[in-house]
């Protein structure tokens, strides 16, 4: 399957949970320090009520951070390729319209 890209930095292989795409596009517009974002697997969960996108930056990976997005009854993994710190990435997500999920 070919990857579809948005601004050559948002890699889309499959669906994105409701509301998350808008947050990711705004995040990329506002932050040149983010090389790319690859949304991953979607799972249905009970603790993701409502349309508000909540994000939790979880663990470092070889080229950035793994994050979890929660919204509309689903959770989605994301891999963010960047050199910025966890705190700076969390702040950038908030500025892009997401809220931080509890750790």
In short:
This protein has 103 residues and is α+β, with helices and mostly antiparallel strands. The chain is 20% helix and 43% strand.
Describe the structure.
By secondary structure, the chain is of the alpha+beta class. The chain has one domain (4-100). The chain has helices at residues 20-30, 86-95; strands at 4-6, 10-12, 34-44, 54-61, 64-71, 74-82, 99-100. It has a five-stranded mixed β-sheet with strand order 3-6-5-4-7, with helices on one face. Strands 1-2 form a two-stranded antiparallel ribbon. Strand 4 and strand 5 (64-71) form a beta hairpin. The longest helix has 11 residues, at 20-30. The radius of gyration is 12 Å and the shape is globular. The model is unreliable at 1-6 (pLDDT under 50).
Question: SSE layout and pairings?
Answer:
Layout: E1 4-6, E2 10-12, H1 20-30, E3 34-44, E4 54-61, E5 64-71, E6 74-82, H2 86-95, E7 99-100
Number of strands: 7
* Biggest β-sheet description: 5 strands, mixed
What topology, given as strand order, has the largest sheet? 3-6-5-4-7
Q: Helix fraction?
A: 10-25%
Estimated structural class: alpha+beta
Task: Give the rounded overall mean pLDDT.
Answer: 88
Count of distinct structural domains: 1
Element pattern in H and E: EEHEEEEHE
- Give the CA-CA distance, first to last residue: 34 Å
Low-confidence stretches: 1-6
Strand content: 35-45%
Principal-axis shape equals: globular
Total helices: the number is 2
Mind telling me the C-alpha Rg?
Answer: 12 Å
